[in-house]
Amino acid sequence: MRAVVSPQAVGLGVSSLILLTGLFSKPPAGLSIAGQRAIMVFLVALVLWLTRPVPYIVSSILSVTLLYALGVVESFAVATTGYASSLIFFLLALLLLGNAIADVDLDRQVAQQLLRAETTPQRTLQSIAGSILGLALVMPSAMARAVTFIPIVEQIASEFNYADGSDFEQAAFLILGHVNPIASMALMTGGGMALVTSEIINSTVRSISWVDWALLMVPPTVLLYVLATVAAIIFTTIGEARQQNHEAAKTTDSQSEGGGIAAETTQSLSREQWIVAAVTGGAVVSWIIGSFIGIPTVLPAVVAVTVLALPRIEVITATDAADVSWGIIFLIGAMLSILDAMQTTGAIQYIVDLLTVLVPFGVLAQWQIIGVLLAIAVGVRVLFSTGSAAIVVALPIVLEFGGEFGINQLYLALAVLLVVGSTTLLPFNTTAVLVSMDHGPLSHRNVATFGTVMMVLSVIVAAGTWLIYWPLVT
């Protein structure tokens, strides 16, 4: 009987091969030794993160150490710059805030409201998706929304008596991870990708106001969000059988005392729930105001966590801090460090230049050029852990090509945002997907396959909006 090689063993073998190849081969023309080794560390980290032969914390520490040990950066402090990013502390604060919501059962109260008029898993998913879309108008962080709704989804799945990994959970976590970030593109102040895109448009194309942005982006964003939600439900094949299981679960629950979450009457909030709700609401209001007057996004989250940890409140304790998903935080910090090293050594520019040199733009029709430019933007997107970072690198180059070939640069910039903001092929491409995958039943294959579906939907919506809607409002 032949022994089966585990994915973890394959990952160790492939990462070791990449490391040896990068160390003992000459870099191609136009790429420095440091740039080659930066790409090598990125590939090693990518393989280790995908196959997980060691915990995320270990592979992340190894990756930043390799940046220093191999001479890619000049000091260990530079190798770990990703951990000094405000994103790391923002993520940590949001995870703690999400845990606080769950600790005081505020998530159960919200779930109660979501299920009061819902009788099927499909309608419940629609209610969750609608709530996230509405919350996006006041909470400019897909990560914050995902962390807020993860315990709610888990509670609802429990009340439906679904086993771990059910179709309902898969659909819900696809919505939280893949679909949820789309909502951030509707408003200029909706998130990092929208802000970065608007700044590039203002500096290279034309001035665009908050109202202009809403007029241009709200309709296509909502359309794409709705299509993606429907796709998530279809993708996980929630159908008649699941409804029958749900009805059976409802019957069982109705026979027990108290019923389920949908059967309970709405209870008044406890003191701790009021405190958490007020503090969370204050953070949301601060995010709204801060988006106009320049308050750093991380500040309201850190203040909220601090208030909830104060004496006589103590909703957040040392135990909560220990229970945070530290592996994800270390992974994101390492990814930011690697990408910074790739930018500093010219590795990112080399990759982008290589992609642009290989494409014969001169013989292509305009729609084909647009398709190629969007493909280049998606290719760059795969290299980054945040959509805003990918847009910073890709959008100026794409707009330069667009201007040279007479393509409407405003439409092109917005189309790039729609496609890049909707494409997540690897878990670390979007923090909301990464956290949803960590908490939910999603596999790497689920993430990549549904990410491809999302990319196709975004291209269709962008093309239709480009041809029909944007010409009407500009």
Automatic annotation (TrEMBL):
One of its GO terms (biological process) is carboxylic acid transmembrane transport. InterPro entries: SLC13A/DASS. The chain crosses the membrane at residues 35-51, 83-106, 173-201, 213-235, 284-310, 322-341, 347-365, 372-398, 410-435, 447-469. Its main location: membrane. It comes from the Archaea. GO terms for cellular component: plasma membrane. It is found in: Membrane. Keywords: Membrane, Transmembrane, Transmembrane helix. GO terms for molecular function: organic anion transmembrane transporter activity. It is a multi-pass membrane protein. PANTHER family: SOLUTE CARRIER FAMILY 13 MEMBER (PTHR10283), SOLUTE CARRIER FAMILY 13 MEMBER 2 (PTHR10283:SF82). This is Sodium:sulfate symporter.
